[in-house]
Amino acid sequence: MSDAPSPNPVDASGLDKVMADKKAKIADMRARGIDPFPARTTRQDDCAKVVALGKGLSGAMASTEEKVAIAGRLVELRDMGKSIFGRLADLSGRSQVYFKKDALPEDVFNLVKRDLAVGDFLAVSGKVFLTKTGEPTVAVENAVMLAKAVRPLPEKWHGLTDTELRYRSRHLDLISTPESREVFIKRAKIVSTIRRVLDARGYIEVETPVLLGQAGGASARPFHTQHNALEQDMVLRIATELYLKKLVIGGLDRVYEIGRVFRNEGVDTTHNPEFTMLEAYEAYSDYEGMATLFETLLTECAAAVGATEVEWKGQKISLKAPFKRLYLPEVWKERCGEPIENVLQGKGFNRPGLLKLAEKLGVGAGEKTPSAKVFDRIIEAKIEDLLIQPTFLLDHPTAITPLAKLKKGTESLVERFECFAAGIELSNAYSELNDPQDQRDRLTEQMKQNAAGDAEADLLDEDFIQTMEAGMPPMGGIGVGIDRLTMFLTGRDSIRDVILFPTLKNEKAA
Prior knowledge:
alpha+beta; CATH 2.40.50.140; BirA Bifunctional Protein, domain 2; eight-stranded mixed β-sheet; five-stranded mixed beta barrel; 20 strands; elongated; disordered N terminus
């Protein structure tokens, strides 16, 4: 057997030699008239079919009449002289292949013997038989090199143990770690299930701009850029909300978008600066309707990935609807020892009362800490432990929700819920505010907070207000973080495990 799999990591001098040897092998193959990178091949079957055909055989050395033609990456090679065993991998799984000198043309056997190495791509064809150990195996009758790997891959395909390397070199992670591949296959199923559920309910999928003149629709700091031809500053969107609402105002009663949004914030286990968000809006609905919709979305997505329940820190989490409902004013009074009204004032915060409560509860807050952050820290410290099973936390302060409709009978609370599970926020929904004057007043107040130093406060979008003034129907709206939903349904602790290419520091700076 020629070049063997290289240890991982490989030191610089060792890597240079391994790659030089592989490049020399490619040059030698070409000199002998063998193309290491042919333009096309025929793959009629996959590795899963080999396994399935093998299950239909009985007895050692039994063989099929049917031939298969498979292709994939070589992940194992055992040279036993006149017999060589290998293992090919494709998306469907892995299949053993058997090269016997007496059963192959001389040039084909020589190719396997001299030129083939772990990491290369190969196409083979032949009948399926059972080995003495009962493993379905392709008795190779023909083999073609499809691509010669130049750079060494993880040793023995046992998976990458270096977490940082997994994120920086996702191709190596996918090659060597089947569990990682399965996470991203499940993520794709989750997204397609969301589309199926919404499409079946008459929603229309749309696309809205990523480059904007002004950020809006969420409380977050945007990324700034510049359009050279227009000579104007622009930002990357932090939400799709305002444009989707414009479409509902225009007569598209049910719309949704699944797309990337960008927030210039810190990186931790549940945050990445760019992430995927579902936002959906439905005319003549409200936050109750959105709660019912989210129950359907979560249970359907769970079924699609085979998750009847989720385990979190040793605790079983049921995914069966209906989900528990908690009303924030009630649990606030129970957990904080005073009515939530003590920290609210009209449509804003009673800041002295808020800071006094934070001090009483031992929650960190400074004079410059925005009131919204102080409020969130109190919830994290005193209430989030109640949010392990899927739970709707309903009725939030107007002060931190400028785009939602007031709860009847109060100016201090709005019709909003956040749905949590395993302590992770999975969705956020409102009965959407459709009074343009109220909207203008609230965003004007947000602008004052922004001017006072809260970079995450919402901005007043004059174009959106003018659109609302054309008449906006009552509606419910919901946002669902696809990454966090995938984390929850696949049992992953870090958002980096469910984003193919997460944002990382430059290696020199890491």
